[in-house]
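User: Can you fold this complex?
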Amino acid sequence: MNLPGAAPAPAGISGAAGNGAGEVLLEVADLRVDFHRGRQTVQAVAGVSLRIRRGETLGLVGESGCGKSTTGRAIVQVERPTAGRINFDGTDLTALSGRELRRARVGIQMIFQDPISSLNPRRKVRDIVAEPLDIWKRGDSQDRARVVATMLEAVGLDPEVAGDRRPREFSGGQCQRISIARSLVMEPKLLVCDEVVSALDVSVQAQILNLLEDLKSRYGLTLLFIAHDLAVVKNVSDRVAVMYLGKLCEVAPSDVLYQAPAHHYTTALLASAVEPDPMAARSSAPLGGEPPSPINPPSGCRFRTRCPRAEQRCADEEPALREIAPGHAVACHFPLVGPVAPTSGQPAAAVPAGCFAPRNGAAPGSA
Amino acid sequence: MSPEIQTGNLTFPEVSDETTLLEVDDLHTTFSTSRGPLHAVNGVSLTLDRGETIGIVGESGSGKTVLTRSIMGLVPREGVTRTGSVNFMGQEILNAPDKSLRQLWGSQIAMVFQDPMTSLNPVMRIGKQIAEPLRLHTDMDGKEARANALSLLTQVGIPSPEERLRAYPGELSGGMRQRVMIAIALACAPRLLLADEPTTGLDVTVQAQILDLLATLQKDRTMAMILVTHDLGVVATRTDKIIVMYAGNVVEQAPTATLFSAMAMPYTEALLGSTPRIANPSHTRLNAIEGRPPDLVNVPPGCPFSPRCKYAQDICHQVRPPLVPAAEPNHLFACWFPLGGRSGPHPPAVTVGVASERPDRPDPVPGPAS
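Assistant: Here's the predicted assembly.
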């Protein structure tokens, strides 16, 4: 379904998935989410467009506060977007409300970071997992019991033993399995996973990551996998989107992104990551400082205040997400891979890095 | 004659030629619980030289945090038994009275905790919190301590430190708060820094900054460090040696390069196998270790890792393997069937009573199964 008036999504962000390019299941167009704090407005998500094809896993990485979780929550409509469209399986979720919205988003389920606090401590595991079925009055009680048992088994729990227990009797990893079972009973098409393994020990993390891969192929799921850990994201994703201060800076197939990153921020993130290998080049904190406040983001490119390559043009003109290779899009005037962005409007004089124009200064190129 | 620092009834030389700073011998820490004794640390020995960094890795519940707290003396006296020996600069500090330990904490041994939010006093300004140990342990007056706090904040890389001195912890980000924690820990120039998961919960970019900062400060001050983490990536490039703990026991110990190139203990291999790596292509299946670490009140007999170990044979479930030296120098492991085809310790000829209940037990063969 083509939305009338929808801004055409950049071609680069709908790259072919590794496992057969299916049709687009989720299309997010120019998503904006603002939060108001007193008189100030925080732009948590400032214009994000992305597409996820059926059967694909899209990873979304970035530092804390970059808006990756808000993006996930806005897709599920937990946070109503300020602007933009979310087209899921042919329906624009932002145009719906009330009962229609609830019905439309049954196909999207979300799993959260803290597995213990996302389960009701007073209910039995069996009832927790059955609750979506109860709410939607699916089947009779026998059918539901059967579905719950199948799901608990699918996530590696014994329904006979686990069903009558309460969440506190389980470890963090097992609670995350219960959350996954609960999210799957409605047979969702899209699973939004928000930092689902970051609170877990490395051994349990590996179990859950393997489980997600198994369930994905077994139930034909499509995943939006939000996490800050680059190695974890690479492990599960077909494509990876990197987010900084409310905007996407780079989208590429995961092996491409990690091998030949085009955005300076992606490079810095990768250089900061630690690998369990004493021979690996020791990172030397390539990024100083912390991201600027989203209340008052820098003009032009949002990363320019920490970018080693920043020029006057980066302050004047906001780089658009453009395709530099099939399936590889970057929002940078001077990417590490691919050509320099063609100038729109008059070319800005190159100045040494570090000399920035004041905010809202002469911006001949900004649209 | 070197001047000496008087700390209660413990005396530490200001300068010493000895290289060994800390020597822990057969340390046991046992908590008494309603279900019975819980052996959180079960016979750990280690030595640490001046300026050296040792990494302690293991899953949660492996006893790594209790170990560092036991070394420092930060465990409750009630309901906790500690035996063995902790020798810090020639002094036995395991059963030193609290009064002398208080002199030691901060000035000689300092600690950086995992959670910078709950470790800082939320209603005290940053500057005062950094100056506090200086006022306690040195004869600096308020003005000097304040000037020192400012210099410490600058050293840990906090921008506009003058303003930050007046800030409250809640006004700082997680990374900045951890820098403040480090500044407090370093205020009195301790000889030993215990860093318990100092970067867990921080972003990768901030993690790299904090680890670099610790390494630089450590080098400048010839400070020894014990770095506790569950992440093998954090210790791989930043430690001199590594101790792998499981269920309160040291299961492998080696110089860092040796551990990664010639690991002997299946648990170490399993930990590494379950860590996702950027160097691997996406969708690489992880070698997850099934199950969970044992309940420390009811640790199974034999090797504590045997219920989850893919190489385990009968003897592993019956007799606990001793920590024995490998061929490489300073490399110890506790496994009957170590990796890489090396020979393990000689299993006892007569095994304990359980053996008779298992008549089908095959003779243990050296080297990993299959």
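The first helix of chain B runs from residue 64 to 72. Chain B has twelve helices and 14 strands.
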